[in-house]
Amino acid sequence: MASVFFLLGANLGNRREQLAEAERQLERQIGPLLRKSRLYESEAWGTTDQPAYYNQVLYHQTALLPEVILTTALAIEARMGRVRQQKWEARQIDIDVLYYDQWVYESARLSLPHPLIALRRFALMPLAEVAPDFVHPVLGQTQTQLLEQCPDILPVQALPSC
Questions:
Q1: Is the pLDDT of residue 44 over 90?
Q2: Which of 11, 62, 78, 119: CA 20 to 30 A from 87?
Q3: Which domain holds residue 38?
Q4: Is residue 90's pLDDT more than 80?
Q5: In the predicted model, what is the mean pLDDT of the chain?
């Protein structure tokens, strides 16, 4: 079994419920959920004139290979109403594959590890909560170290549990 880390994001509709539904579908289709972060709220990154995001990191075990995981994640997004029109647009759900074990992998559809992890506070805060000592296979630093050095200054805050 392999370990896979996902970053979920939503800034349209009932953000909390969107993330919960994505979590349920990923567990059914990808494999057991081992750990998850709290929910975090952050301003939009990239295209900033849109509602704030809720983000969460999920850590799963899986027997699936990365390309199958990506296809599954994209199908979940589509079933949940995501329509892709432009990069970094507002969305009901976004499911990014961040890491797959210590794989370094590149295809036309997928890059592992996710190439923007070290630049995104909204990804690193929940990653550091779930797997603080997990080492980035290219940069050779833990998630905690990457967070400490992250150049992103957008505020990210943990939300209270319901």
A1: no
A2: 62
A3: 2-158
A4: no
A5: 93
99: CATH: 3.30.70.560
pLDDT value, residue 82: 67
| Predicted local distance difference test score (pLDDT) of residue 152 | 94
Residue 140, both tokens:
């050779």
Cβ-based burial of 84 (10 A; exposed 0-12, middle 13-18, buried ≥19): exposed
Please classify residue 143 by burial: count the beta carbons closer than 10 Å to its beta carbon, then call 0-12 exposed, 13-18 middle and 19+ buried: buried
State how far the alpha carbon of 32 is from the alpha carbons of 58, 108, 136, in Å.
10, 28, 22
Q: Report the alpha-carbon angle 105-18-56, nearest 5.
A: 50
137 torsion bin: left (phi>0), alpha (psi -120 to 50), beta (else): alpha
Q: Is 153 exposed, middle or buried (0-12, 13-18, 19+ CB in 10 A)?
A: exposed
47 vs 54, higher pLDDT: 54
